[in-house]
Amino acid sequence: MSQEHSSSPDLTSDLDDRFVFDFVAYDDLAAGQRWSTWLSVEPLSRGPEPRPDWLVTSQGAIDTDLGVLKTGKEADVFLLDRTDPHDPAQSVVMAAKRYRSTEHRTFHRAATYTEGRSMRRSRDERALKRKSTFGREVAAGEWAVSEWTALNRCWSLGLPVPYPVQIDGTEILMEWITGPDGESAPRLAQTRPDPTLLASYYEQLREAMLTLVQSGLVHGDLSPYNILAAGERLAIIDLPQLVDLVGNAQGFDFLLRDCTNICTWFARRGLEVDPQELFGELMAHAF
């Protein structure tokens, strides 16, 4: 005698489609990858609003190291890709600046730049003075925070700096500045602009320095080596030493040095500029 087997009932047939989801498991992350840290940092550790439309905030995004872009005495800059693998439209390559700590002998000029600043914890300040291993870690963290704060302030002032995406410990993610060819923008020192572009570059820097001094600030280490030439526009980088013009006893010396560095480079390329005149113009707007 044959026995009929009834098929299993479809338990989802009466469900509203809005409550039916497809779940896809991610593969294990490869070497040099991590989950996006955007949501793991505090809100104040994320970039200012309004945020650019290229920013990737997806919780499912993956960060992939693409290699070293630039090495320096205090920090190294890497390229980092942040992409949501299930939404390819959410993808961006950023610059990841990572300050070194313990093993690297750096920050040898820190005292002149940080005059007028205060530490949040006395224990950290004592460690810095002793130059212990912990003190060097504190120094790396403090300089990362200083640059993060400077980037946010400069961006809010409308200055030509990379957009600050986020800070996580001693790592700052920021906009990757590229040229018209999509590659990393060269330093100003590496360029040979024609007379018209040269004059435009100088005017951009003069306006940026004017905005800084009107806000009581000085870059403190401005030179053609920490200015990027992205086609017809410039971008100022390396801001951890941003100086309080009045609060730092050497603030005016730093301003004059910035003027000298900039004017010397432009004068050597045929533009008639004078560091003393630029310094005088900036001082006239400083108060």
What is the N-to-C order of secondary-structure elements (H for helix, E for strand)? EEEEHHHEEHEEEEHH
Residue windows where pLDDT falls under 50 for at least 5 positions: 104-109
Total discrete domains? 2
- Global outline: elongated
The radius of gyration computed from the alpha-carbon positions, rounded to a whole number of angstroms, is 25 Å
Number of strands: 10
Distance from N terminus to C terminus (CA atoms, Å) equals: 104 Å
Task: Describe, in short, the structure shown.
By secondary structure, the protein is of the alpha+beta class. 30% of the residues lie in helices and 20% in strands. Strand 2 and strand 3 form a beta hairpin.
Labels describing this entry:
single chain, 287 residues, Phosphorylase Kinase, domain 1, 2 domains, 6 helices, RIO-type_Ser/Thr_kinase, EC 2.7.11.1
List strands and helices in order, with pairings.
Elements: E1 33-35, E2 62-71, E3 75-84, E4 87-99, H1 110-114, H2 122-130, H3 133-156, E5 164-168, E6 171-175, H4 195-214, E7 217-218, E8 227-230, E9 233-236, E10 243-244, H5 251-268, H6 275-284
Pfam family, one: RIO1
Catalytic activity: L-threonyl-[protein] + ATP = O-phospho-L-threonyl-[protein] + ADP + H(+); L-seryl-[protein] + ATP = O-phospho-L-seryl-[protein] + ADP + H(+)
InterPro entries: Kinase-like_dom_sf, RIO-type_Ser/Thr_kinase, RIO_dom, RIO_kinase
Describe the overall structure:
- It is a single chain.
- The protein has two domains: 144 residues, Phosphorylase Kinase, domain 1; 97 residues, Orthogonal Bundle (Transferase(Phosphotransferase), domain 1), CATH 1.10.510.10.
- It is 30% helix and 20% strand.
- It contains six helices and ten strands, in the order E-E-E-E-H-H-H-E-E-H-E-E-E-E-H-H.
- The strands form three sheets. It has a six-stranded antiparallel β-sheet.
- Strand 3 and strand 4 form a beta hairpin.
- About 2% of the residues have low confidence.
- InterPro entries: Kinase-like_dom_sf, RIO-type_Ser/Thr_kinase, RIO_dom, RIO_kinase.
- It is an enzyme of class 2 (transferase).
